[in-house]
Write a structure and sequence with these properties.
By secondary structure, this protein is of the alpha+beta class. The chain has six helices and twelve strands. It has two domains: about 120 residues, Nuclear Transport Factor 2, Chain: A, CATH 3.10.450.50; about 120 residues, Nuclear Transport Factor 2, Chain: A (Roll), CATH 3.10.450. The radius of gyration is 18 Å and the shape is globular.
């Protein structure tokens, strides 16, 4: 969920991806999964820092736990450079995959494993979401986020924006941004449980506490039920040219009654239903710093 510790992920990969040549749905899916397997293997073998350095799209977004929304190569380079060298060998495997009708956008989500450094490391199991784009015949990751376990932090480099303005609903992402804004309004007016149940697609799935998979609108709504006040806004978005699949990245604040606000960021994957309307397929997030 959008609480610090849910799902989500996105990065860009141009140098590691194989050329696009698939003509049918099965080949499209196989091509995307092969691209993801490649970068996971690089992360496991050479370390996450090296994978990011080689693979991030110039406009890619990384949602790293504890960091602000990192947008673009310069932001990510500043932050990742401060991570402990060779301290993170993170791998992941998909449980779900979606490819847009025109093959310009793909989505993968699933489980991730981190083996911390040390003599007897205990593997940490979490989750991820990745939104991919296809540029010049290659799959590339647009944004990336991992959730559900502790990852190494890094000192915040100067020049990183701690908060970003809400994204207007314009261009080919307009319908998905508008859906996210309407989702946020309903959460503010009627509570998170009502909003998540209303905006989840029939096939929606998210990770809950302990890595439990939660399926369907009603079950997802129950996981966020309570009296906390939720606010969020999208700050970046992407969409297939055919408009059947899209994603939004944003910033959220969750204020429990009588408690301190929780600051988080999120990635939401959206689909256009066959009968019309837009709903989310999966959603997740992690913590971010409090803006001044």
């Amino acid at each position: 969920m959008r609480l610090p510790g849910g799902i989500v992920a996105l990065v860009g990969a141009t140098s590691l991806m194989r050329p696009w040549s698939a003509a049918n749905a099965q080949d499209r899916t196989a091509s995307l999964l092969a691209a993801e397997r490649t970068i996971s293997e690089v992360s496991q073998g050479s370390g996450f820092r090296q994978m990011i350095k080689q693979s991030l799209h110039p406009q890619g977004i990384v949602l790293w736990p504890g960091a602000p929304v990192l947008v673009g190569q310069a932001d990510v380079d500043r932050f990742v450079a401060a991570l402990p060298a060779d301290s993170l060998h993170l791998t992941w495997k998909p449980l779900g995959v979606e490819v847009a009708d025109d093959s310009t956008l793909g989505i993968t989500w699933g489980t991730a494993v981190n083996v911390p450094p040390g003599a007897t490391p205990s593997p940490q199991i979490g989750s991820y979401i990745t939104a991919w784009r296809r540029d010049s015949g290659h799959w590339a990751i647009s944004a990336m986020a991992f959730s559900g376990f502790l990852l190494p932090g890094a000192p915040l480099a100067s020049g990183l924006a701690l908060s970003r303005r809400a994204l207007p609903a314009t261009g080919n992402t307009a319908s998905f941004v508008a859906a996210d804004l309407a989702f946020a309004r309903l959460a503010g007016d009627s509570g998170a449980a009502v909003a998540f149940e209303r905006w989840a697609s029939p096939a929606a799935v998210v990770f809950g506490n302990g890595g439990l998979l939660i399926h369907g609108p009603q079950a997802i709504g129950r996981t966020v039920a309570g009296t906390a006040a939720w606010k969020w806004h999208p700050v970046a978005a992407g969409a297939a040219h055919t408009g059947d699949l899209g994603w939004t990245v944003g910033e959220a604040v969750i204020k429990p009654v009588g408690g301190e606000p929780v600051y988080s960021k999120y990635l939401t994957i959206w689909t256009r239903l066959r009968q019309g309307g837009i709903r989310f397929l999966t959603d997740g997030g992690n913590a971010r710093p409090k803006a001044p």
